[in-house]
Automatic annotation (TrEMBL):
Residues 6-282 form the Endonuclease/exonuclease/phosphatase domain. Transmembrane segments: none annotated. The record marks N181 as: Transition state stabilizer. Probably binds two magnesium or manganese ions per subunit. PROSITE patterns: AP_NUCLEASE_F1_4. This is Putative exodeoxyribonuclease III. Belongs to the DNA repair enzymes AP/ExoA family. The record marks H282 as: Interaction with DNA substrate. The active site is at Y134, D179, H282.
Amino acid sequence: MIAITTSNLNGIRAASKKGMLDWSDSHTSDVWCMQEVRAPQDAIDAIMSKIKIGYIESENNEIKENSHENDNFTYINEVCKVKGRAGVALVTSLPVVGKRYGLPGLSEDVDSGRWIETDVLTPQGYEITVVSVYVHAGNVDDVEKMHQKFRFLDTMLTRLGELRDIAASGGNQAILCGDFNIAHTVLDIKNAKANEKNAGFLPEERAYIDRWINEYEFVDVMRMLAGDIQGPYTWWSQRGKAFDNNVGWRLDYQFATPELAETACGFVIDRAQSYDTRWSDHAPLTIRYNL
């Protein structure tokens, strides 16, 4: 049994001040994928040093390695080249046998800090590929931001096809974890009708997830486990009473290749008990896999 968590931090420095470290002490997973780290490398290192980490590797303009022994943890991150934006990370207690940075085919600075792949060995000796992903949010009032989002989604299709083919031919099973900034269906958003023309619920955005599932054969693992129920959501606006009234969106997913998805046996969305105890506007999603 392994547990994989994905969570958007909404800034690692802010999250650490609001209780993220306390949360992590009692919610240990075998793999923790993080998005919107949004900090320079020295700030990230300082915070990560407080949650048992053994190996640090990062990418700014070049890859650098800082290796030291400490409880056999591995930490990998990619810092966005645009200051204060994006940034993805992955922490694991499993042996790491491969690392790849960035989504192949994209070289714009704004696309950095959004995709890292890590090959890990499970306790049973299986090698699987875990990807931490942060997709552009987009903004219908900003043509360039929507262009960036669709460019990223288009490029993702190529890599998803490659990961699918590797898994189908007997290679690594794969799982994509992250904040995809798309609510797939009306079950994934509280106010569907009111948001049909807003970024994150546009028909052309949702069509990408249709393709990932129907054409590329990836499984929306949480939805498979939850069934056709409303929600549960993973993100709530900081405005108004959205959190208190559970007016949310499901933006955080784990998409797995079929053989890996079949081993999923339970999930938890760790929604905070109250607005003032949240350390991010997203809630962590953890799924357990019985390999």
